Fold each of these.
Amino acid sequence: MKRRTWIAATAGALALPVLALPSRARAQGWKPERPVTMLVPFAAGGPTDVMARLLAQKLAAILGQPVPVENVGGAGGILGTQRAARAEPDGYTIGLGHMGTHSANPSFYKALPYDPVASFTPLSLFAVNPMVLAAKPRFVRDLPELRDWIGQNKGRLTVATAGTGSVSFLGALLFDRATQAGATLVPYRGAGPALQDTMNGVTDVIVDQAVTVIPQAQGGTLVPLAVTVPQRLPQLPAVPTAAEAGLPALDIAVWNAAYAPAGIPEPRARVLTAAISQALDDPALAARFAEMAIQVTPPDQRGPEPLRALIAREIPRWARLTQEAGVKPE
């Protein structure tokens, strides 16, 4: 499926049926009286934005109020995340974030304008985006062949990234450490140019979110080598997991979560958390996510506590990786 076909599919995915669901959220004791804004710290049209609009449509039906999505992109998600942190903590702002904005950014920036822990009230994880290691056409056929090439060409591999601190940059760091390739990580201004130069053979490989790699792999403009999660993807059934291909250390997925500003009254946070969980239980939403290789968070991993525990593990994980790679915070 080529990129324009995928864009059409995602546009169709936004047209979810709005069901009159009995609301567990409203039973929690607070009912919004005006729209609840969802802040997305990335540009419109990307994976986070598409997920946000699907989720917002369901939340609107559950909460009984519109949930407009506002995109505040820039600086690797920092600007929008800062905006969410500084919003009024009254329950009328939900900020979205992911592994980059809330666990990796402290390793890349000396003075973030927000604290990923103290500035927010965690609401819930809601989705995981697998990543895919892919190569330029006519380079290698599989991961073992790539590793053989690396063994004979130490220090010559180039890996495209969407910029320092991006999730593809983290994937590239993890891949380089796992293979000891001594690779050159080439930063671009976003995933689009990074993918384009890999497809055109300017760079050798890329590690990016499955939702962006799948159309190119299906269209033959990239060669998928491995999936970075424990299960194969239905869209790429012949592509092994990294563990199956002999590289278990290439273990990375982009978790996505919802937050409120710190200081929100606990009953209102509880209502928003319950509404998110209710939306994720909708089979139509799960099906739309699955079409894009996005995995809905299972019930036992939702809510504030699993999210707090995940961030507590993830921040030191990326700190260790960046320190070992010699990355200096800006």
Amino acid sequence: MIGFIGIGIMGSRMSGRLLDAGHELIVYNRTQSKTAALIKKGALSADSPKDVGARANIVFTMLADPQAVDAVAYGNNGLLAGMKQGALWIDSSTISPTQSVKLANDAKHDGFRFLDAPVAGSTGPAEKGELIFFVGGESRDLEDARPLLSIMGKEIHHKGQNGAGTAMKLVNNLMLGQTVAAFSEALAFGESLGLDKADVIKSLFAGPTAAPILHFKESKLMKEDFENADFKVNSIYKDMELASEEAYKHGFALPLSNSVKAMYGLCQQQGKGDYDFATIYDFLKKK
């Protein structure tokens, strides 16, 4: 039995692939209505994270923020209170390496195994099983998880011990936030000079500077339709804040990242926290 906790934008697609592949699945989400589609397709419903842990041998969590992970993990109805001895917990949430190490140590203390396995990729890759997993933890535990990760992803990068997978995710999302912001600023600058937006995008895509994420955001930038989010401003701001906090702990400065993070924070202040993070283009463009 596979457990999955966190049936949001990403978790619903990831768990759906496991179910479609024929795995017996038990699911839990704080807002129970979000599990309805999976249950209709044959998944079992759990009453609590503890219930998932008691019934599954491998449990995935895909949660919004560090506080949500702790809320699921701890307490009388928490995941750690119910997991079987030797069971494997795979956390795909984006949290700090420090928190991942603590979760791993607490799990091991109680006789469970733990992998931090956050992902690169948003809704499209999640639906197609084309995510990239960054994994921290024991190699033998990864081998037990690999068949399931391969259903949801196209690549699995083992980065080292617990916390290393989460560390790589923060590195990835730091660059992700900067990349979309830099492209948005360049596009808005081109328009301010009187250039046609579609032609600016075409020329930038023809050159060496356009990352794959920018092709994925082209439609949103052209239509300026940011309310239907693939990845929210709230999420990129949270991830860049986690990177900033971790950098502080290690005595490392992030001058570019912190400036970009502040711009996403201003988007939040404008009431656009639930918008797609490509809305930073709208924030930057000349009105």
Amino acid sequence: MMNLPPDAAPEGSERLAASSCPDTTVQQISVLRQRSEFLKAARAPRQAMTGMVVQARKRGAGEPAETPIRVGYTCSKKVGNAVMRNRAKRRLREVARTVLPQLGQPGYDYVLIGRNGATTDRSFADLTNDLRTALRKLHP
């Protein structure tokens, strides 16, 4: 470990500091965690794509509006063992992180469901295109 003066930053940290600054134009995304939130989204319209299934539900007037977009991720045991399910969810999280701030609608809850074989084996570009296409179909 290097000893640096308190005001000195390590090499390359300028790039990290600049890229980690929050952008005010990017929408905040929070994660669905409660079963009741997933069940509400299960009754919403869904769009099946090759790499995933996307459910989109507009939140009601009495529901929390602290964040414009909320997203949840799920993979059943059909996807595979725990390693495969976790890999699929990690890929879905990254796809959502890149696509939802641009194409997600404020006030919506989204649930991304992994599919057997396709979510873990499909290329990242194809997964991204799947989510973009699904959002365009869900929000005409």
Amino acid sequence: MNEHDIDDRDLTPSDPADRSSLQHPDPALCPECLGAGVVATGETCPVCEGTGKPTNRTGGG
């Protein structure tokens, strides 16, 4: 491998059929809490308000 080559060997899932190794999040889940309804601190997710589903409030502007 040359000095200018990019090492991308570990950037793909080891088993493409394994759903847990997918790199893209499920669009049916809230992007903030990933469907849990709570954030890591245990508080209700401010984005989905505890539903775990994406809302219109997600996204930039």
